[in-house]
Amino acid sequence: MDSLIQASPKRWLRFVGAAIEDAYPMSPIFARAVDDRTRLLKIADYCDRARANGLRTDAEILGFVFLMHEIAPHFDQHPHIRAVLDGEGEPMGARWERLFQPRDEALERAFAEIEMGGGARPDIDWHIERCGSAEEAFPATHKDPRFLQCFLRIKARHVALGGERDG
């Protein structure tokens, strides 16, 4: 049940797209006229990024995509956020939940830094397909094989669609 909707990839992407459109109608994938195929491609990119972070359930992945929109698309590259997500000794679900703990001053500072534009790269943060390398795409995690594979999947999807589409 944790990944019920993901069992049907196209249905999952449409579900995530509808949720984004409802919660964040000014998302880059809805702010301009973007065709449905490109929109689904970008949503797949966002979901792949969540999975590269070790998230697997429908709720975790959707939550990650929402945080990309609420905080910043690169929030997972902040050192403190990375420390929480990469922490060992507890399951990923518990680490993910720690990001939402109230009164954690270090997390509040990290999120504030990100929201104030810390590390922001507007031209590529929403468009990993425009990056020339995994290091450019994921500065803090490019040596992690999960992020290298994520980068390669994103690039391959966009090439297969006919180039680096905006979204």
DSSP, total strands = 0
The average pLDDT value, as a whole number, equals 91
- Describe the biggest sheet? none
What value does the Rg take, in angstroms? 15 Å
What overall geometry do the principal axes of the alpha carbons give?
globular
First CA to last CA: what distance?
A: 31 Å
Helix-strand topology string: HHHHHHHHHH
Helix content: 55-70%
Structural class: mainly alpha
Low-confidence stretches: none
- % residues in beta strands: under 5%
Number of helices: 10
Protein architecture, described:
With 167 residues, this protein is mainly alpha-helical. The chain has a domain at 5-73 and 122-161. Helices cover 60% and strands 0% of the residues. It contains ten helices and no strands.
